[in-house]
Amino acid sequence: MRLGVALGYWGRGPSADHVPLAREAERLGYDSVWTAESWGSDAFTPLTWIAAQTSTIKLGTAIAQMAARSPTTTAMHALTLDHLSGGRVLLGLGLSGPQVVEGWYGRPFPKSPLTATREYVDVVRQVLRREAPVELDGRFHPLPYDGPDGTGIGKTLKSITHPLRSDLPVLLGAEGPKNIAQTIRIADGWLPLYWSPTRTDVYEASLTDVPEGFLIAPMARAKVCDDVAEGLLPVKAMLGFYIGGMGHAKRNFHADLMARMGYEEEARHIQQLFLDGRREEAVLAVPDTFADEISLIGPRERIAERLELWRKGPVTDLLLLGPDPHTLRVLAELNT
Q1: Angstrom distance (rounded) from CA 293 to CA 268
Q2: pTM of the entire structure?
Q3: Is the pLDDT of residue 285 over 60?
Q4: What is the DSSP string of 150-184?
Q5: What is the CATH number of domain 2-223+299-334?
Q6: Residue 205's pLDDT is what?
C-alpha cells in the first residue's frame, strides 16, 4: 500500500505549510500529493506550484469538479501540467452535488449522473489519446456543440499540443454502488470519500471485478497524538460539515453514504442539527466510533495496529489528510 498526502482545498487563504509538507513527503518516499477544490481555490494551480518545487512525487487532483470545466478544458489542464511536471499527474474527477453545481457553477445538475460522467471521461480520454479530432454524440457533452442556440458551424478539433502520456491515469470520486461499478469499468482508479477498513462489506458487491492495476485511494485524516478524543475533533468537524452542509436536506450524497455504512439515524440527526443552524451540536453529534474508524488518530502504537487493517484490504493508496511533519514521518516508518 502506497502513501499519499492530501492537502485539500484552501480555507480563507493559502497555507504556508503545503509546499513544505509536499517536499517532506517526497523526501520520505510518499508516492503522491493531492489537492482539491470546492468553491474557492482550484485544484490545478496549487499542484503546479508544488510541481515546480518537487521532482518525483505524483500530483493528484482529489477532486477536480466536472462542472467547473468542460471536459476538453480539464484535459488541457491535465496535459499541460503533465508536461511541466515530467509525467506526474493523476487526474481525479468528480461530479460534486446539486447545491454546488447549480448554486456555484450555475449549471444544471445532470439528471443522469452516470451518463454525464461517462461522456466526460470519454472526451478527456479522446483528447489525451490524440488519435483523431474529438467527437461525441453525447447528451451532456456533445462535440461539436449542436444545440438549438448554437451557430451550427462548430468544427471537430484535435489538440495542438501532443500529450506527454496518452494513458494519463483518470480516477473518479464515486459514492453510490452504480457509480462505483461504472468507475471500475471506465476509470483507472477510485477515490472513495469515506473508507472503513472494518466495513469493507459496504463496497464488496461493487469490487468483484476490479482489474489489475486499478487504484483504490481513500483519504483518512491522520494525527499522531496522545489524546484520541481531541485528535478526532477535526474529523468530526469535517464530517459534520459534509453530512450536514454539503447537500440539500432531500439530496445529500455524504449523508446517504454514512447511512449505508451503518449510521443512518445518526446521519439524519446530524443533518437536521446542521440545517437548524446548530452547527456545534451537529459536530458533537458525530459518533466517535465512525470518526475513528475512517481515520488514523492516536499514539504511534495505536496507529500502527490500525494501519495493518488498511494494509490487509483492497486499498492501494492511502491518502493522509491534514498530517503534520511528525505524523508524516511516523506513517512512513510504519508503512515500510
Answers
A1: 19
A2: 0.93
A3: yes
A4: S-S-------SSPPS-TT--EEEE--SHHHHHHHH
A5: 3.20.20.30
A6: 79
